[in-house]
Amino acid sequence: MANNLETLLRAAKEKRRQDPEGAVFGFVKNFNGGDNRYGLFPLPANPQSMQIDGAVDANQNDATFEEDIKPKGTIIFMPGRTEFIEKFYEDIHMFHTLGYACAGFDLRGQGLSHREHPDREKHYVETFDNHMVDVRQFFDEILNGPEGKSLPKPYIFMGHSAGSHVILRFLSEHRGYVEKAITVAPMVRIARGGLPRTIMYGLPKLMIGLGKGDAYVPGHTKFKEGRWGWRKKLTHDDERFEDEDYFIKNKDHRLAVGGATHKWLLEALKSTDKLNAANVPEAIDVPVLMIQASEDTIVDNDAQAALAKRVSMIGLVRIEGAMHELLKERDEKRLLLWQAVLPFLEIDLS
Q1: How far apart are CA 273 and CA 127, in angstroms?
Q2: Burial level of 23, CB count in 10 A (0-12/13-18/19+)?
Q3: How far apart are CA 320 and CA 266, in angstroms?
Q4: DSSP one-letter code for 36
Q5: Contact 163/78 with Cβ under 8 angstroms?
Q6: I need a surface site. Which of 131, 193, 317, 336 has the fewest CB within 10 A?
C-alpha cells in the first residue's frame, strides 16, 4: 500500500494550490444577518481527470487509480483558527482521487465568512456556541438541500485544531449528521506552556472587564506574512507553510486574519471547558479518528489523550516528530497521517 499511497500523495501535493475541478463557492446567511462562506467540491465528471501522473505499476505501461470511480461519500472540512477552505486543497485533491466528494466551511470570524468585529484583522468571536448553530445551518440548508445533491452520503467530518474542536462539540450535541470524523490536532484544550490556569483565564477576563476584549493577546498582532512568533511553531515544511500566504496574496487578501483577541481566547477556553465537562464527549456516537502531533505546542496533547480514554468511539493516533499543522507537515509525516486515515475509512490500496 505504501508505494501506491506515496504516489497519490505526490500528485495531490503538486496540485495543492489549484482549485479542484468543478469547485463551487457560495454563502449562507447566518442568524446575525452575516454571510458564512462554503465550498462544494463534487467528484470531477470525467474520471480521466483523476489520472495520477506517474502512477505506473510494474505490470502496466500506463495506470490510473480506479478508472471507474463511484462516489464513496463526502468529506466535510472544518478549518482551524486563521485558516480557510483553500488551505485544504491538497487533501481535497487526494480525496477526489480516492472517490470522495468534498465540502468546506469557513467558520465565522475567519476566511471569507462573517466577522463579528469591525476590524477584520482581529480574531474575535462572541461565543463558540455560534459555530454550532452555523454548522448545523450549513448541513440543513446547503448539504441537505438542493445545492448538496452532488455530494453523496455518508458525510464524514475532517478538521484541524479549532475546527476539530468544533467538530467534537458538534458531534456531542447533534446526532445523525455524519457517520465518522477525523480530527487532526484537535483543540481539546489550549496548551498553556507552563502558564498557570489562573493567569490563562484571568488575563482575558481582566482585559474584557476593562473594555479591551478586542485587544490582541500577548505575542499576537495583525496579520503578517512569514514565520514569526507562534507561526514558527506550526510545521517543519517551509513550502507548505507558505500555502496560506500564497492564497492570501494571490486569491483574496480578505482571507487573512490576524492574532487572537482576549475575547476569542476566553470564549475558546470556555468552549473547551464545555467539551470536557462530565457526560459531554461521552455523547459522541460515531467513530472518531484523533490524530496527534508529538511536537504540538499550540494545543494540549495530554488533554487529547485524556478525552480519548473517556470516549470509546475515539481512537488516538500519535505522529512522532510532527508539529501542530499536520496537514502541512513534511511528506513523511503526511504519509503517516494518511496511513491512519485509509484504514479508518476502510480504503485498501493494495
Answers
A1: 13
A2: middle
A3: 30
A4: E
A5: yes
A6: 193
Task: Please state the pTM of the whole predicted model.
Answer: 0.93
CA angle 177, 312, 270 (to 5 degrees): 65
State pLDDT tens for residues 287-334. Answer: 999 999 999 999 999 999 999 999 999 999 999 999 999 999 999 999
Backbone angles phi, psi at 161, to 5 degrees: 55, -115
pLDDT in tens, 184-240: 999 999 999 999 999 999 999 999 999 999 999 999 999 978 765 667 778 999 999
Q: Which three cell numbers stand for residue 208?
A: 474584557
In sign, the C-alpha dihedral spanning 117, 120, 121, 125 is: positive
Amino acid identity of residue 60, one-letter, is Q
Burial class (CB in 10 A: 0-12, 13-18, 19+), 195: exposed
Residues 6+ apart with CB under 8 A from 147: 24, 26, 40
CATH class assigned to 2-344: alpha beta
